[in-house]
Amino acid sequence: MNVHEFQAKQLLARYGVVVPKGKAVTSKDAAEKWVSQLDSSIYAVKAQIHAGGRGLAGGVKLTKKREEVGALAKSLLGITLVTHQTGPQGQKIRRVLIEEGVAIKKELYLSLLIDRRTGWPVFISCPEGGMDIEELAKTNPQAIHKEYIDPSSGFQPFHGRNLMLNLGLHVMGPQVAKLFRALVGNLYRFFMEKDASQVEINPLVITEDQEVIALDAKVIFDDNALARHPDVLKVRDLHEEEKLEIEASKHGLNYVKLDGTIGCMVNGAGLAMATMDLIKLAGGEPANFLDVGGGASQETVKEAFKILLSDRKVKGIFVNIFGGIVRCERIAGGIIAAAEEMHVRVPIVVRLQGTNAEQGRNLLNKSGLKLKATTDLWEGAQAVVELTSGPSKKSRAA
User: Fold this and answer.
1) Catalytic entry in 109, 255, 303, 329
2) What is the pLDDT of residues 244-279, one digit of tens each?
3) DSSP labels for 298-343?
4) Of residues 5, 147, 200, 329, which has the active-site annotation?
5) Could you confirm whether 134 is annotated as catalytic?
6) Do the beta carbons of residue 279 and residue 262 sit within 8 Å?
7) Has residue 301 got a pLDDT over 90?
8) Residue 213 and residue 18 in contact, taking contact as beta carbons nearer than 8 Å
């Protein structure tokens, strides 16, 4: 789950991470009322959406005049901001963060996430903050330092010293060194206690007054752990999430919307990824990732099918089920129930294998639905591509 920048900063501040004084507002009047309480040489007005690249897209405004803050807030509120992360549809700005500026002496990059190879938390740091870290990793990889944390022993003082040395902060005086080591320790504690999957501070700044401040903050939480953190769950902003993904979460479905035209319904994440790969190999583009899970009921399958059909981009559906715990006749029943309710007008290809697969295929054949049944995965992928976009130019040998 993503949260807004102002929410991330509020949560981090509870763990001792220093952030600029600021407040999120929803109107010009509220912006003017808040900024009247600040006393700074510069003010920032920052669009609050769940996407990066806001500055480059015009979503961050700076001014040295307090009286201009209200007008800048009004100019952003209500508009649709398009960044490289929102896609062409953009995201509507419903809040802006009004912050006091700081006198920056040095900008750094710092993040904490789970390393997929080791399964350990890892700090990623770079002495060049405020930049696109992915691009920097390509052009200057030696500038990036990784500090792995063994979860069995947790964060230790030497981790903080290693990060400090690699960022060159040891030459900036004892106060900076002390504050930085405290910050990374607090960041790790927050990360572990709140079940975060990523924390990114870009930039982390050293001020002229030798303070260490998180000038920006991005936090992503593990959805599977939200039940343990009601304080995090209550700040969820449904306006920022895909409507179909919200609906899927209500039914316990693992669904991610993509940009293709072939809807996929599969049981098991690994099989779902393989199915998407085969659709692309056959010349098509998957419209989603959808894992109905190993114990899906007929009702769950029905809801999953309805979600697929609610995507206007979908031109065809590929159902790929290997029945283990889940029984194939349940899948068939859910498909039939959803198709009858939704009046399906797109081609459907169904591949059922495993537990009660023959019963499932018999139910589908007797349903009167216009669909193609197959027992071969590659054949099914080719069939759904051909039915939605003409003959595939790919072959198994490809």
Assistant:
1) 109
2) 888 888 888 889 999 899 999 998 889 999 999 999
3) HHHHHHHHHHHHH-TT--EEEEEEEESSS-HHHHHHHHHHHHHHHT
4) 200
5) no
6) yes
7) no
8) yes
